[in-house]
Write a structure and sequence with these properties.
about 240 residues, BirA Bifunctional Protein, domain 2, SH3 type barrels, 2 domains, about 25% helix
């Protein structure tokens, strides 16, 4: 079972995780009531009001970076399981590649993996997780075409505290981590695809200045997005996906 550090305030739970990593002796959850400089992918600001869930799981995993990174799927599946356990609404949840959890089609949660020293003697992986438990950002502040944010409270009527959410999330992550270590990525891939958003539908994948449009055909054995285009199906390791 992972350890737990509770904070009233920090700049970013991922940043806190890296600061504390040298003295941590095992997997540890760092949860903060407030983040003053929370961030999402591509260093975008992440709104972090009190009452939402802001946490990082700090791990020191062995293995090559590309294998370690597959834990983003374990985190997504654990988030799905935790929300289902707390809301009883399995049919309302979908997983959006690469690292979002959708509730009723809106973005409920995001995952940010950051690491240092992977494959070396002192690896550190910080799995940052933000969940809109009681409040969501103003959709007008989001990038055009982005999935609109939603909160668990507004969508379901369930008021869940951060402590209660961690109590559901931590064992759910432990279960998927155990599967991953024992059986590899294949069972995670299958479970993730069973809840994938927009599989078989037309999407856009943007990498840098390049945007490609095609049918979302799932993910491959390395977690890459499979995009079926007119002439071929391409595997995309990193992109922003728009519906």
């Amino acid at each position: 079972m992972a350890g737990h550090i509770a904070l009233a305030e920090t700049d970013s739970t991922n940043a806190e995780g890296f600061r504390r990593a040298p003295v941590l002796t095992g997997p540890t959850w760092i949860v903060s009531e407030v983040q003053t400089a929370g961030r999402g992918r591509r260093a975008r600001p992440w709104a972090s009001p009190r009452g939402n869930f802001h946490a990082t799981l700090v791990l020191k995993p062995e293995g090559p970076p590309e294998t370690v990174a597959l834990r983003s799927f374990a985190a997504a599946l654990a988030l799905r399981d935790a929300v289902v356990a707390l809301s009883g609404l399995p049919d309302s949840l979908r997983l959006k590649w690469p690292n979002d959890v959708l509730l009723n089609g809106g973005k409920l949660a995001g995952i940010l993996l950051e690491s240092t020293g992977l494959g070396g003697a002192t690896p550190v992986l910080c799995i940052g997780i933000g969940v809109n438990l009681i409040a969501a950002p103003d959709p007008a502040e989001m990038e055009q075409g982005a999935v609109p944010p939603v909160s668990l409270l507004a969508e379901t009527g369930h008021r869940v505290t951060p402590d209660a959410f961690l109590a559901a999330l931590a064992p759910a992550y432990d279960a998927w981590e155990t599967v991953f270590q024992a059986r590899g990525f294949a069972p995670l891939r299958d479970a993730w695809l069973a809840s994938a958003a927009r599989k078989g539908e037309l999407i856009r994948a943007r990498t840098g200045d390049q945007t490609r449009e095609g049918v979302f055909d799932g993910i491959d054995d390395h977690g890459n997005l499979l995009l079926r285009m007119a002439k071929a199906t391409v595997a995309i390791p990193a992109a922003e996906v728009f519906f």
